[in-house]
Amino acid sequence: MRGKIVKVGYFKEQGLEVFLEKLRSQGWLELFTNNELGCSQPDLAEFYARVTVTEGTVTSVVNWVQIEFDAQTLGEILGVPSVGFNLYVREDKSLLSKARLLDLAQRLSQQPGLKHP
Fold this sequence. Notes:
Elements: H1 8-13, H2 17-25, H3 29-33, H4 41-49, E1 52-54, E2 57-62, E3 65-69, H5 71-78, H6 85-89, H7 98-109
Antiparallel strand pairs: 1-2, 2-3
């Protein structure tokens, strides 16, 4: 199974060049546009079925192997910078209005009927 791939053309059409530029400037664009990366669908399902996140540490079990990582370790594994990752995942999204968050979520997920961001 391939991961979620960012289709650069689609994001440009949607006026989301700033998002692409942020991915590019942080060294993450290659990660999200590389269609050679992939994983086993059953293993991914098992990972998500057993995942917990506690104080920034992700823990799960796949094929009886315990997996544990934080943002910095995941960045090292994926070969991408992790500095500033906490800004992406923070719970406080008050910098954007609810309407703007919904608009962005609809565009990024390609689901115009989405009701909640």
